[in-house]
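Protein modeling request. Please complete all fields; requests missing the sequence field cannot be processed.
Requester role: graduate student
Desired output: 3D structure, token encoding
Chains: 1
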Amino acid sequence: MKKIYFALLFLLTSLACMAQGLPAVPDSVVPIRLPMDTLDTQDKYTRIILFDDHTWNYLDLGHPKIDTASLFDQYWTTTEMHAYRNYPASQIPDEIDLLLADSLNNYCAPILGPVYSGYKVRHGSQHTGVDIPLSTGDTIVAAFDGVVRYVGTTKQTGGYGNLVVIRHSNGLETYYGHLSKTLCEPNDPVKAGDVIGLGGSTGRSTGPHLHFETRYKGQTFDPDRVIDFQTGALRDSILTLHKHYFSIYSHYGQTDTESKAASDRIVYSVRSGDTLSGIAKKYGTTVSAICKLNNISSKKTLRIGEKLIVR
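Delivered output (311 residues):
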């Protein structure tokens, strides 16, 4: 216990020296005010150090360095879940390099764990993120530096449950869904690793997990392209984002050729009276080819509104 006490005292003394503009370890004996306690301020990145001589100093814990000029554009809203609903996808370049992390831009895995449901068509509808299992109450943190754009409840977001959306200065937005509790507010600046909520199973959920999405100008793409959720490692410090990644059929692990082919797929919405043979004939393909593309049996009963890849 004594070792821990002296280690903490040394740390506080070093911080006090920095707050006073003195070297952490003075070259000569100089009277130093000893820190006795710290106090919170309205700014979570600033603390007040109280010294033994009844004086005090501010201590900057490191404010996030965020280019707010690129964040608060005409598509900034704290009341709508999807801000870029009307953003023309045609304005997005075919290829763009996005800086994810460097000495000034931080990264932290939102939570560690295996992806048990990925970015794909699931049960006939698009699952536009990845699901990471957790225990209710587990800590969820911001993946990158940014500003909280939206915080919503299950009543407001539907299937997402309690949701936090963070916008980042490189144009990305990250979504954190099914939270049991949100611990941030719209317009809050956050650093990577800051706690933004607790994991849960709110909304359309079959059990406790984090639903995590990555979006660029409103377009979703596979978060597995950004993060190895099993290890928590960033795939790369720079993400080369291709426009064909925005297809639900394009996912991490594909070659660019495979991704382009997947993004060109034709998807058919089943109507009343449709049969597999009728759909195959209409699109010049075969029942077996449709079954293989959709991983279904030729005896499957089709549901109205169900999505089928036909080519």
